[in-house]
Amino acid sequence: ATPTAVTVGIGRGAELGLLIRNGEALEVSEKLTAIVFDKTGTLTRGKPDVTDIIPLGMPEDRLLAVAAAVERNSQHPLGEAVVRRAESAGVGIPASKRFTTFSGRGVSAVVEGEEVLIGNQPFLEEHGIAVPPEAEREIAALQDKGKTAVLVAAGAGLAGILAIADTLKPTTKSAIAELKRMGLAVTMITGDNERTANAIAREVGIEDVHAGVLPQEKALEVRALQERGAVVAFVGDGINDAPALAQADVGIAIGSGTDVAIESGDIVLIRDDLTDAVAAVELSRKVMSRIK
Ligand code: ADP
Ligand code: MG
């Protein structure tokens, strides 16, 4: 039987904006030693915008049009940012064929008879697209500002770079500071590249960063921490995050996240506010001290 204190705790959680799915989550939260955050949509708003357009050998409008033609088929926040920008710039977006998603790397399609690839540098290089040194320097400078550099190739060569930036949620920084003060080891896991990830991590005060992690590897990273003796909470919002949410001792899903993530969470943060993750740990400590 569930001890009364846990039931009361779940009710108190509801008042605090926490949907606590099971009493066990509340009990285990007291023992947490580590908390792992997804970056996009969890630490950041997940509504990124195009901030820089760097065409390489084609007009800016053409670069946007070609990129949007491919990304129009994508559900990824980066893709949505590209399409929004093309629409607000008023460029005509051509049709595309044979759209393909490469999970955690990029997308491709055929636009007006030409193969177009959009994604990160490793993705383009895997497909035989050369990235010249000046472009590499440009990319590094954007990433050091916390921006994601999205490379566009049309035909056989690099056609341009789009920089896309996401903003932090207003309470991210204070929530991280509070979790550290409470003695938890804080980690960030992201599919984004190392430079961008480090720039964001520096901004929020996270020292332990795992970048370039493919979607299916997030759960393995959680398990590796557990094998080293940590009791781990994972906080995430995406389809990609569902296995890690399930693997964690406590899965904490962002309320506005994808349905799959919400279903995989033990605790759901209804208000999307990371301060409420702090409240969950505090609540659990209070409840468990009452039971002992
Ligand atoms: P995150 O963990 O930050 O949500 P993902 O695993 O979804 O990131 O994607 C990792 C990387 O793959 C992105 O940072 C981006 O470089 C590239 N990528 C994925 N999807 C797209 C897309 N639709 N357009 C451009 N780049 C993409
Ligand atoms: Mg995410």
* Overall helicity: 40-55%
Structural class: alpha/beta
Count of individual beta strands:
13
Distinct small molecules: adenosine-5'-diphosphate, magnesium ion
Strand content: 15-25%
Could you characterize what this model shows?
The chain is 43% helix and 24% strand. Strand 5 and strand 6 form a beta hairpin. Helix 8 packs parallel to helix 13 (275-291). The protein contains 13 helices and 13 strands. The longest helix is centred in the C-terminal third of the chain and has 17 residues, at 275-291. The chain has 292 residues and is of the alpha/beta class.
SSE diagram, text form:
Layout: H1 4-15, E1 18-20, H2 23-29, E2 34-38, H3 39-43, E3 49-55, H4 60-71, H5 77-89, E4 96-102, E5 106-111, E6 114-119, H6 121-126, H7 133-144, E7 148-154, E8 157-165, H8 172-181, E9 185-189, H9 194-204, E10 208-210, H10 218-227, E11 232-236, H11 242-247, E12 250-254, H12 259-264, E13 267-269, H13 275-291
Parallel strand pairs: 2-9, 2-11, 9-10, 11-12, 12-13
Antiparallel strand pairs: 1-13, 3-8, 4-5, 5-6, 6-7, 7-8
Helix pairs in contact: 1-13, 2-13, 4-5, 7-9, 8-13
Bound molecules: adenosine-5'-diphosphate and magnesium ion (MG).
Magnesium ion (MG) binds next to helix 3.
